[in-house]
Design brief:
- The complex is a heterodimer of chains A (663) and B (606).
- In chain A, strand 10 (262-263) and strand 11 (269-270) form a beta hairpin.
- Chain A has 22 helices and eleven strands.
- In chain A, 54% of the residues lie in helices and 8% in strands.
- Chain A is of the alpha+beta class and 663 residues long.
- Chain B is an alpha+beta fold and 606 residues long.
- Helix content of chain B is 56%, strand content 9%.
- In chain B, helix 5 (220-254) runs antiparallel to helix 8.
- The radius of gyration of chain B is 27 Å and the shape is globular.
- In chain B, 53% of the residues are buried.
- Classes of the chains: A alpha+beta (663), B alpha+beta (606).
Amino acid sequence: MVFKMNPDLKKERENASFDPEKITNFLYGGQESVKRKRELESLALNDPDYQHEDLNFMSREQQYETQLKKGILMVTKMKELKITNAQDQLFYTSAVLVSDVHPMSVHTRMFLPTLYGQATEQQKEKWLKLAENYAIIGTYAQTEIGHGTFVRGLETTATYDPKTQEFILNTPTLSASKWWPGGLGKTSNYVVLMAQLYIYGKSYGIHPFMLQIRSLEDHKPLPGVTVGDIGPKFGYGVMDNGFLSLNNVRVPRENMLMKYSRVEPDGTYVRPPSTKLAYGTMVQVRAGIVMFSGMNLAKAVTIATRYSCVRRQSEMKPGHPEPQVLDYVTQQYKLFPYLAAAYAFWLTGQTMMSVYMTSSSQISKGDISVLPELHALSAGLKALSSSMANVGMEECRLACGGHGYSHASGLPRLYTNATPASTAEGEHVVLLLQTARYLMKSYNQSLQGEKLAGSVAYLSGVQPVPAAGRTRNMLDLGALCDAFRHRATRIVGEAAAQLKSEMQGGKDQADAWNASSVDLTKAATAHSQYFVVKTFAERLTDSRLDSSISAVLTRLCQLHALHGLVTNSGDFLEDGYLTGADIHQARRHINALMAKLRPDAVALVDAFDFPDGILNSILGRYDGNVYQHLLEWAKASPLNKTDVHQSYHKYLKPFLEANRAKL
Amino acid sequence: MSREELYSWGLKRGITMLRRVKELNITEEDLDTYRNAALQTVGGGIGIALHWIAFTPTIEQQATEEQKKKWLKPAQDVAIVGAYAQTEMGHGTFVRGLETTATYDPSTQEFVINSPTLTSTKWWPGGLGKTANHATVMAQLFTRGKCYGPHNFMVQIRSLENHQPCPGVTLGDIGPKMESNGNDNGFARFDHVRIPRENMLMKFARVEADGTYVQPPSSKLAYSNMVYLRGTFVMSAAQALASATTIAVRYSCVRRQSEMKPGEPEPQILEYQTQQYKLFPQLAAAYAFWFAAWFMTQQHGSITGNMEKGDMSGLAELHALSAGLKSYTTAVAASGVDVCRMACGGHGYSHASGLPALFGGAAALCTAEGENTVMMLQTARYLVKCFVQSQAGKTLTGTVAYLSAVQPSPVAGNRNMSDLGTLVAAFQHRAARMVKHAAMQMQGEMQKGKAREEAWNSCSVLLIKAAEAHVHSFVVRNFAETVQTVEVDESVRAVLTSLCQLYSLYGITEHAGDFLKDGYLTGRDIDAASSHLSAMLARVRPDAVALVDAFDLHDKTLHSVLGRYDGRVYEHLYEWAKKSPLNKSEVHESYYKYLQPFLKNNRAKL
């Protein structure tokens, strides 16, 4: 079926104040990159080998099998097509996998990088080629039933036996069972196992070990290995997240990944040069999550915004036709702040990534002085962006009314696949407290006169003062950054004071920390929000932006800042830095900005440049032909294979007949 | 289970339950309790439930005595099975906009039921897709060329012989959803389907044989039903939070993690203040909403009594409150359940926790039976009206009385931020100020020349916030009054009072700006509220498990490995996982199909 574009969407696009292509180029780093992105995407989206029924129609087993098949095809084709560059691979795989993963994803994302990063040259020779060519499939087995973010608490043991020069790998308790690693249940035949190293009865902490878990001949679990799938989850039905218990399995000494720490044949432990190096990878992973959060939010907003232009409902004025739901200010207030946030996190993620790239050359030369700050910043930003994306995606889903609840909208799957970003790779609160710890340390240093650098420099700088009496221009990005900066400084300072007073009241450091921890997470959030607002504003000073683009992006940036300000107005009012009148102004500006953004809303989501195949949403279709496709989709769904479902014959018919007979 | 298995399984259990009701001679008054328990045991929605939740009550309430003779007994005995078909693809909450038509043909004395457009397709009704053979269909009534708005019509949609769709009727399931996949939420299209005149449910409005339309005496009864239905949503919100906090609080006592002090054993995670701060406000909200639902039930009862005596006063106020309360409590419940889920870390993400399904259920409450934003604006409309009346000198009563009372002015100096009276007054002040502010803004916009509707739209964010503040203040006040008056012993009153303080203080710190904006509270008051809140977290901590045990939710209705009463979490997590469909064999069949050839090939090339 060929449909013309929905007339409402067509009109929206004609009335936009700018050409979305220009923003697309800005978001993806230039015209060339966009061109390449589209080539790769259409290569994947038009490949008949990747076509299949909607995953939402399938059972868990079918989903796993479909995605395994696709994953294998994808790996094979990328090799044939010589798609080797990391950016290109990302474009191609996102188009193949949409908002899902495949059962070998962790092999690519974690198993291989761990070998690159932690294996010695000899070890690389042994395993890297096998792994790179998918002759073995591995995963990264760290999390256990009983321990996640708190890595030091892992219970799996690796005990060195100098007699045989082997490690004995064991899960001594039920809670020591590995639990959650992706691809562990059914797919992988190797793992990098994180375990507590014991030599001569002494513990040396967590180290990585290479372990084969399934036979390369028949894929059966090896002796001493119990392995399986952990069962169905909120999302990620395609992935065989698994469990693994080990009963004293022996591996040669050479199976410990020894690029940093080593164990000599006689059992001598050789310390790594620095433990902070692991931070580098974490910074990179977290910057990636910031970007990922921005992108997921962008997808949700694209769906909800387009649908809100197609959906007409109710009566704004008696006798008038039903308006597009996006004309309701309440709908704008649901969507536009998240549209702005999607841009904010997208750009902040990019900035973080480039800061990391710049400093990584410094790091590789052995200068790790920037790492603690980057690490603290990335922890807070990951927590902030993933929780904001969670709330925002759900808000977008609800903004689509009942239809948002259907899998046809694509929103439930987007949410359930993206929400682990809040608990995986470091639980939300734990990460905020990591940031807070660094903030407290920095703040105390600044009290002692030390000058701080980087993202915390402002804590030791001269603070912006409240402009009592005079009217403040609440649209000015400088003034808004100042306000967020003042708020962060104040809350960091107060959390430090609170901590101190708890200790002066007789609590020890740990109890004082716990008693202040809610305030500490608030300080970390305020710090991270300031960084995002500032980064967003700074990115707009890019001289390559033409005026039509910078005008609309400036509105988004203002909206992002003002919305953050009014939703946290207490923080700005508490010490009188802003007044009730300022907040009132801020609200009026938000209304005015939303009205200005309204005609550009569709162009702003079009600029994210998600093809329909990637968005995978009937409500969010580019052509807006929502209702026709909703019906087609429903007709294809499993319960409609027959007019009368077989369970009628099994259950309903005898029941109804018996009841009728009795009447 | 696959979608088809889920449906089949749900249908089988629904039928079993209907059989048991008869076998066990469950009495009328116990029927709801038994059905709810049975539904919770099944978990998730089932299509056939709409037969007794919506279809049969519609006959009871809207059919004439004659019509009841024809349909009520077969419905009660489940000789026919029905659905309630209102929502369409193109229209939901805005019922007036429905497009399905019922056009009266006086020549044959029939109604012609028709779906004139794609968007008029009935969409979402539970049980409509595969289960029901009858439906009450909401359609725009046309007679003598004039439209009289949506009315209900009884339509047979499937053959009683072979269950095939009746001629002119197209039926199907609307496809998989976030949750409730045991329910065959369906679609239906009608192609000029003719039904006798007597199939219009005519207890209220009627169409005579000649096509004359007879107005219903009063449309107020529909309001009363809505109030009742929304009251049940408030209770559902409370129960969703009660279930989620039961799971998360119990698990947080079983889970031990990290090191609070070097060298000491890992503490229960409920010892962390941040964990308490996630869970206890949700726990307090569960109690607050539970009591709010009580209030709604009581008020609905007394108003129904008055209505029978012809006294309609109080209905408008209760109707307005019920809309906002439905909106507020379901929104808090949905996000609160997700907070509980994430408070369980990674394990909360597993279906073993029961929390994803609970979230899916709570999230559906936000858009069903009146979309939440539309509901909140209904409350706002009533509040603005009240405000204008009070400006004109009228004294308001009931839940809006405070709007016309003299507002307490800020007391400079020391305020006791843990005193319930002080807290209630603060919430009322905030609501009164925000209602006034929104109403004045609207008046201002209109004075500048905007039409009323435009002014309404441009102020709607403020109006929503004002209505939320009103509902919030009602919940706080009702909570405070309940803990002060409920007949319990003093130990229970003490802990409920702590929860009420916690709920109120959390509300103040979360919305500090609203209280600071006009100087009603000072920065120092907010600091005090924060410290009291910390103190309340510590005070509730030792009673947390008892407070969730008190909800008395059976393991079989919680469906949660993490929330087990006996706390044997890890063992059962393992047992549960072993039953996962992917674990039926050690080596999954897809290995032979895809993985083995791939790996072999790759090895061969090396």
